[in-house]
């Protein structure tokens, strides 16, 4: 087949990126290993422990429980599953802001729980008063997002944790995308900042691990015990993951990515991305575009449909939020030069459209 992998030089909206070279090398070495069967494949299992420990360090947890999942979707689903199984209610409800990732809709469908979405405030963040009004005796899980997919917003995590606690519900933080930016900001978002039970942080996004590498973390081992099933034919006796056979490449890649980049390279990436987001915001505003002021490095702005189509025709990979803004995610591969080239395209299509 004559297919070539996507080049990243015009990819603006994706949350995937070029893997770190050390992570790509490690992934190739462990292609055939199955971390789902740790007694048969002990070395990749040891790498997984290393990766989970590193993710624990990043998220304020000394003795983390968790594993390298297929992605944020699986990690979020497992958080809902644990909450459902540990809940007192027979009719468990997940309460989350409307800004929550669509993976929670899948989790609710698969697990047969109700997803109750609560409108965000006018800055696209979870509104604690509205969330407090939405929880009740059936609430099994409250979700906060630390770095929303559409606007890069960070919910008020400590306030949401208190609401969950008062409702006797578990509390999950989805930092799938934001988790490798947040350590270098002053946001409160992780296990050490609030009573967080479970957390999603994806090495295969800003962490620059090769796909598939999501991160599922729990404050205590009891959460994993609640998820574990017996495994008669394997050398180990129980398995808490959703997948059976898993990618050794994903696990080894995540371990190597974390080893190579935490904390210095991740800090540098964050600072570069934040500066790029600020400069892009200014450049767009100078040109008269309406831009949502970024928090984490993700820039959403109003772009009329003809211009949106025209820049896409020039090869720029650009997508929209649910409410229609074009969104540019300042991922590690998104350089200042690339953004300047994008602005040139934008200027050219605008001149073309106005007939000047
Ligand atoms: C990307 C993302 C997910 C889903 O992760 P996948 O790895 O695509 O399954 C979940 N939550 C947030 C906030 C995300 O940005």
UniProtKB/TrEMBL annotation:
Keyword presence, Lyase: yes
Alphabetical GO biological process terms: carboxylic acid metabolic process; coenzyme A biosynthetic process
GO MF term set: aspartate 1-decarboxylase activity; pyridoxal phosphate binding; tyrosine decarboxylase activity
EC number in record: 4.1.1.11, 4.1.1.25
Requisite cofactors: pyridoxal 5'-phosphate
Top-rank lineage group of the source organism: Archaea
Keyword Protein biosynthesis: no
Modified-residue entries (N6-(pyridoxal phosphate)lysine), positions: 205
Enzyme class: lyase
Residue stretches in coiled coil: none
InterPro entries per the UniProt record, alphabetical: Aminotransferase_I/II_large, GrpII_AminoAcid_Decarb, MfnA, PyrdxlP-dep_de-COase, PyrdxlP-dep_Trfase, PyrdxlP-dep_Trfase_major, PyrdxlP-dep_Trfase_small
Domain Aminotransferase class I/classII large, chain residue ranges per copy: 247-346
Keywords for the protein's UniProt record, in alphabetical order: Decarboxylase, Lyase, Pyridoxal phosphate
PANTHER family associated with the record: PTHR42735, SPHINGOSINE-1-PHOSPHATE LYASE 1 (PTHR42735:SF6)
Family that this chain belongs to: Belongs to the group II decarboxylase family. Sphingosine-1-phosphate lyase subfamily.
Protein name per UniProt: Tyrosine decarboxylase MfnA
Source organism of the structure: Halarchaeum rubridurum
């Amino acid at each position: 087949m004559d297919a070539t992998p996507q080049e990243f030089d015009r990819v603006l909206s994706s949350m995937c990126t070029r893997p770190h070279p050390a992570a790509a090398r490690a992934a190739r070495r462990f292609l055939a290993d199955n971390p789902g069967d740790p007694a048969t494949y002990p070395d990749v299992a040891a790498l997984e422990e290393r990766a989970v420990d590193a993710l624990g360090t990043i998220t304020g947890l000394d003795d983390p429980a968790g594993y390298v999942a297929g992605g944020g979707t699986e990690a979020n689903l497992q958080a809902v599953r644990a909450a459902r199984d540990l809940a007192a209610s027979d009719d468990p409800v997940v309460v989350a802001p409307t800004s929550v990732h669509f993976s929670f809709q899948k989790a609710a469908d698969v697990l047969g729980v109700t997803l109750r979405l609560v409108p965000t405030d006018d800055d696209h963040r979870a509104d604690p008063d509205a969330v407090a009004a939405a929880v009740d005796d059936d609430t099994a899980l409250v979700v906060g997002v630390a770095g929303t997919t559409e606007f890069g917003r960070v919910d008020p995590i400590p306030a949401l944790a208190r609401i969950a606690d008062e409702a006797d519900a578990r509390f999950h933080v989805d930092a799938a995308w934001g988790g490798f930016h947040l350590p270098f900001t002053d946001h409160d978002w992780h296990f050490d900042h609030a009573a967080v039970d479970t957390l999603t942080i994806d090495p295969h996004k800003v962490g620059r691990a090769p796909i598939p590498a999501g991160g599922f973390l729990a404050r205590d081992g009891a959460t994993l015990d609640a998820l574990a099933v017996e495994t008669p034919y394997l050398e180990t006796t129980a398995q808490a993951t959703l997948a059976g056979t898993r990618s050794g490449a994903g696990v080894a890649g995540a371990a190597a990515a974390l080893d190579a980049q935490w904390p210095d390279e991740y800090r540098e990436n964050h600072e570069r991305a934040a500066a790029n987001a600020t400069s892009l915001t200014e450049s767009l505003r100078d040109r008269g575009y309406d831009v949502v002021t970024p928090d984490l490095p993700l820039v959403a702005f109003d772009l009329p449909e003809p211009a949106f189509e025209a820049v896409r025709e020039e090869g720029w990979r650009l997508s929209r939020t649910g409410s229609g803004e074009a969104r540019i995610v300042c991922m590690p591969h998104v350089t200042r030069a690339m953004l300047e080239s994008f602005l040139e395209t934008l200027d050219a299509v605008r001149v073309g459209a106005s007939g000047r």
